Amino acid sequence: MQRIMLRGKLHQARVTHAVLNYEGSCGIDLDLLDAAGILENEQIDIYNVETGDRFHTYAIAGERGSKMISLNGAAARKAAVGDRVIICAYGLFDESELAGHKPRLVYLDAQNNIARTGKDIPVQLT
């Protein structure tokens, strides 16, 4: 059996650009892509914390060091500049790969600086 598991996440990223007339995708600072282990042209899911919208697109390289999170094309209609989003990449894993699997979690501040990284999501408490 194979399972779809979280591989990498940019948590609480701020949208810096929304460019309707640009080829559809999400431009992400190369430093942030590297930190989360997301590759150019990889499918990503984006969750808008402000509106609850969820959608698929693909990652493209944004200028290294720019802190860019740019929603382009149709995706530009899914969030406004300043909205907080969660960007996730998933992978298909065999049962034998699950024991050692840990996602690359990247937590960002309001300026898209890396505030911290991790590999474990805390247990949700009541």
UniProtKB/TrEMBL annotation:
It is an enzyme of class 4 (lyase). Is synthesized initially as an inactive proenzyme, which is activated by self-cleavage at a specific serine bond to produce a beta-subunit with a hydroxyl group at its C-terminus and an alpha-subunit with a pyruvoyl group at its N-terminus. Keywords: Autocatalytic cleavage, Cytoplasm, Decarboxylase, Lyase, Pantothenate biosynthesis, Pyruvate, Schiff base, Zymogen. InterPro entries: Asp_de-COase-like_dom_sf, Asp_decarbox. Its EC number is 4.1.1.11. It comes from the Bacteria. Its main location: cytoplasm. Pathway: Cofactor biosynthesis; (R)-pantothenate biosynthesis; beta-alanine from L-aspartate: step 1/1. Pfam families: Asp_decarbox. The modification Pyruvic acid (Ser) is found at S25. It catalyses: L-aspartate + H(+) = beta-alanine + CO2. The active site is at S25, Y58. It is found in: Cytoplasm. NCBIfam families: panD. HAMAP family: PanD (MF_00446). Heterooctamer of four alpha and four beta subunits. This is Aspartate 1-decarboxylase. It comes from Pseudaeromonas paramecii.
